[in-house]
């Protein structure tokens, strides 16, 4: 083999994916048969980094991405009404107006979630660091409001984002270094629960329901720690979920109805957590 041929062959060898270090080879790491490794890494990375930062307990806030802040909701309604005025017979435009009105009506949840998070975070600053840290899914809507409440009082907060084709960037109120991105819903949900001192479910859609039912099932089966699980917005939750019907049908027991409570104000929600743990507050 000539020197030139040897050089060409050597370059081909070192440029082939097989020569890459295994942990630096994205194609290799993403192989279907290496999913167990990816699951383990996704579990370990946030766990190790949060442990290094001294995060011992969290207050987890779930809720819809579509809950708007007041001004944004009002702007959407104004645009929807303007579009309907131009086409009064357009059924889709009329539907958008009705939905936008609901955005305005529910915008109070943004403000109330922000206030609740502020209250939790203010308390967290009176005790040893690393306790009662706000944790959300890192996205917009209710998640943004919760992270923002912590930001308002200079407290850290955590965001657990999920990789989706349409997902927005993490909201800007998550603490840098405490924003994590997940590929697997199951591992992300596990991280929501690992350090949880309380789970607060504000109004939301399928994702919020999924997170709530995961937690309530684990509590029902005694597979996770006893924590307050609070459904914020009693009228909203009672409109979409009839838990009493499940008990009457015998598919859950009456005692399971006590695994969660309702709250309709930031103060009531926080007080339930205070009472549950017998916290000393001013």
3D architecture notes:
With 282 residues, the chain is α/β, with parallel strands linked by helices. It has a domain at 52-69 and 107-277: 3-Layer(aba) Sandwich (Rossmann fold), CATH 3.40.50.450. It has eleven helices and seven strands. It has helices at 3-15, 26-29, 35-52, 70-86, 91-124, 142-152, 185-194, 206-220, 234-240, 243-249, 266-277; strands at 58-62, 133-136, 157-162, 179-182, 196-201, 229-232, 261-263. Helix 3 packs parallel to helix 7 (185-194) and helix 5 (91-124) packs across helix 11 (266-277). The chain is globular. The N and C termini lie far apart (83 Å). The mean pLDDT is 95.
Separate helix tally: 11
Helix content: 40-55%
* Strands, total number: 7
The biggest beta sheet, please? 7 strands, parallel
| SSE succession | HHHEHHEHEEHEHEHHEH
CATH topology of the domain at 52-69 and 107-277: Rossmann fold
- Proportion of residues in extended strands: 5-15%
> How many angstroms does the end-to-end distance come to?
83 Å
**What form results from the Cα inertia axes?**
globular
Radius of gyration: 24 Å
Overall average residue pLDDT: 95
What oligomeric arrangement do these chains adopt? single chain
- How would you write the strand order of the largest sheet? 4-3-2-1-5-6-7
Structural class: alpha/beta
The name of the CATH architecture of the domain at 52-69 and 107-277 is: 3-Layer(aba) Sandwich
Query: Which residues form runs of ≥5 with pLDDT under 50?
Result: none
Q: Please write the CATH class name of the domain at 52-69 and 107-277.
A: Alpha Beta
């Amino acid at each position: 083999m000539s020197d030139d041929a040897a050089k060409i062959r050597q370059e081909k060898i070192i440029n082939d994916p097989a020569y890459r270090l295994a942990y630096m080879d994205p194609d290799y790491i993403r192989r279907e048969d290496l999913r167990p490794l990816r699951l383990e890494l996704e579990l370990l990375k946030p766990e190790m980094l949060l442990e290094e930062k001294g995060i011992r307990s969290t207050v987890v806030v779930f809720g819809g991405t579509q809950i708007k802040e007041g001004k944004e909701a009002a702007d959407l309604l104004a645009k929807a009404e303007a579009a309907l005025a131009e086409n009064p017979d357009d059924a889709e435009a009329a539907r958008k107006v009705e939905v936008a009105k609901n955005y305005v009506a529910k915008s109070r949840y943004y403000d109330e979630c922000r206030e609740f998070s502020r209250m939790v975070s203010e308390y967290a600053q009176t005790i040893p660091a690393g306790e009662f840290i706000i944790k959300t899914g890192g996205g917009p809507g209710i998640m943004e409001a919760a992270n923002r409440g912590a930001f308002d009082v200079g407290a850290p907060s955590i965001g657990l984002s999920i990789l989706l084709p349409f997902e927005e960037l993490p909201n800007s109120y998550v603490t840098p270094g405490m924003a994590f991105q997940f590929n697997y819903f199951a591992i992300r949900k596990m991280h929501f629960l690992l350090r949880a001192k309380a789970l607060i479910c504000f109004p939301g859609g399928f994702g919020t329901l999924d997170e709530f039912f995961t937690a309530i099932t684990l509590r029902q089966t005694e597979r996770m720690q006893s924590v307050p699980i609070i459904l914020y917005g009693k009228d909203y939750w009672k409109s979409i979920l009839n838990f009493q019907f499940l008990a009457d049908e015998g598919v859950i027991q009456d005692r399971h109805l006590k695994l969660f409570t309702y709250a309709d104000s930031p103060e009531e929600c926080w007080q339930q957590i205070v009472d549950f743990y017998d916290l000393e507050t001013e």
